[in-house]
Amino acid sequence: MCAVQKWGREAGSGRRTRAPSLLCLRHLHANISCSGWGNGYADIVKENKLFESYYKELGLVPEGEFEQFMDAMREPLPATIRITGYKSHAKEILHCLKEKYFKDIQELEIDGQKIEAPQALSWYPDEQAWHTNMSRKIIRKSPLLEKFHQFLVSETESILDMCAAPGSKTAQLIEMLHADMDVPFPEGFVIANDVDNKRCYLLVHQAKRLNSPCIMVVNHDASCIPTLHINSGGKRDVLFYDRILCDVPCSGDGTLRKNIDVWKKWTTSNSLHLHGLQLRIAVRGVEQLAVGGRMVYSTCSLNPIEDEAVIAALLEKSEGALELADSSADLPGLKWMPGVSSWKLMTKEGMWYSDWSEVPSSRQTQIRPTMFPPTDSEKLASMHLERCMRILPHHQNTGGFFVAVLVKKAPMPWNKRFPKTGGSPAASLPTDAPHLAESVEGEGGGPERKLGGEAEEEEAFKGASLAQETAAKQDGVCGPPPLKKMKLFGYKEDPFVFLTEDDPVFTTIQSFYDLSPDFPKLNVLTRTHEGKKRHLYMVSKELRNMLLNNSERMKVINTGVKVWSRNSDGEEFGCAFRLAQEGIYTLQPYIRSRIITVSVEDIKVLLTQENPFLSKLQDHAHAQAKKLGSLLGDLSEPQCSIQLCGWRGKTSIRAFVPRNERFHYLRMLGVEVFKDKQGQKPSDGEKEGKEGEEAEEGTTSPGFPVYLTEGFPPRDGLL
Questions:
Q1: 382 contacts 322 by C-beta, under 8 angstroms
Q2: Is 96 a catalytic residue?
Q3: pLDDT digits 0-9 by tens, 465-509
Q4: Is the pTM value of this prediction over 0.90?
Q5: Which positions are annotated as binding S-adenosyl-L-methionine (predicted)?
Q6: Contacts 24+ apart (CB under 8 A), 698-701
Q7: CA–CA separation, 378 and 357 (whole Å)
Q8: Which residues contact 623 (CB under 8 A, 6 or more apart)?
Q9: Annotated binding site for S-adenosyl-L-methionine, which residues?
Q10: Whole-number Å distance between alpha carbons of 222 and 460
Q11: Cβ–Cβ < 8 Å for 635, 711
Q12: Catalytic residue selected from 300, 388, 640, 645
């Protein structure tokens, strides 16, 4: 599950408002981000008679198209590329792709297959997503595509998303927050959750490519993810999310084209086993959704038991609090089939049931009433299940997918029926809040004044859960999940420790980098209570609020962006911390010293040579680097700025930029960067840099942190 939250004030009113918040709930499955690149399985027979008979009988595929549907399912998924990251950088990479690599691919024929030129997905904005008929195997093995392959591998580590790794949806949400590159701390934030501890670290890896201070990765069971609190105006309020992505675990039969082992493992039992969990996760999601907010429920399954059945059960239990949104106009160009309002259920033995009344008692623990369509035709029509969207593989050469957009119109009925008792309710809270606000003294003040504490909170949930469990036995409709105690698995994370405004660290950093007065010191944190601080990170003020108020109820895997790293050599020069490349776009608006302006040629030197002599820089940059004056160049009509963190030695200068980011920036400047096919042979520039480094060995004095920036004019045809 993934969610976003924002705070702000209404213009001219002084009244505090909440800006969009986003929660991303995931449980077990997630998209394997590399659409159509999985041709590495041994020969698997792409046949499953049960699958074919099931979907043919359901009639989800338009009449006369079933053979096309099955043929598409047996074909490898086409390679798909999505350009991610900040808009200005994305435009440069798009230009590079179109003008260099896509042109080279046209009219190629490999192993008897004619390679089609990549095509932009018509429904995806700004030509930021493309697909082609090439498989991963062809791209990896063909000498004619070696440069393109290296480009994809390298750029995937910085700005490309191969549309399948866990975290691709989360990355899109982060990009939306950072639509304006000039705003270092957007008001909103994203919380990304996964029940699998190891998958959480994949999410972290994906999110780190975007270097955002507004993302938090947490590790919880999505069906009972804890309610979080925030400090709002001196009171401890419940956090409700404006947007929730509920990407639930599913049977994955829409992924047959890339997950080929599903062919031999698929059975209808998969959907029957997952339906209850999917519904519990969806219920927990809408409980935490703000009134007026939207939740997207999605699966990579085509099965109505996992799709429309979950939505129908959720709508029925909401008693009008939820409604399906009509999203038909949101993605023009995307082909999809409307949701269905009639379906049947089949066991793995081939037994069909059309209604709960037909299910024998021996089957009623496996098959539940919520798996069938509502029997009340008027109620069923009012649900507008046709507003659900099912993407079929043969319509646009894609995988299979299901999505439904739910709008919360009112508090959930069970939250209204079972309010928390034993304390006066806070007027600022919506009526469906599962917890009442608890008064506190303020963010940095004294201890909280708890009204009932965790015991009272647990009792409120127990009451609601017990009553709903009774109702569920009567009508077969799931209610809210029972409260579960948080269980911690996996690696024990280091603590998140916020620095105070008078922390001694800031004394030297403030003067060394001449930080502006509005620099948010309270947003800086470290990962240790004791000893020297190795790294300093920054988060948005909203995430700081979250961390301070939920440390005992939330297992945080990662948050914040690294902005400074310790360099003990710098202590004798007044500051032990050098800038970190990951956080430079967050820090840049606040730094007023140790900035030098460099040209395109200087950037090329710094990125192709590991430790070049200062004399390699052009005169203007050389002079600035020697005196390290407070200077920021302002080039006319810059197309895309590049900021690099570096360290100046006695006679050399070094850019602290990871290898793949170096390649990324060089490509933006039009420089071809490729490694030798056999081995990792260094380029001439890299050799030269190492020679320079060796020449300095034994004579290099401790360096000074420097900050490099470069801008260049726009190309023809680019805005």
A1: no
A2: no
A3: 444 444 444 444 434 444 445 555 556 678 899 999 999 889 889
A4: no
A5: 163-169, 194, 221, 247
A6: 699/650, 699/651, 700/649, 700/650, 700/651, 700/652, 701/649, 701/650
A7: 20
A8: none
A9: 163-169, 194, 221, 247
A10: 20
A11: yes
A12: 300
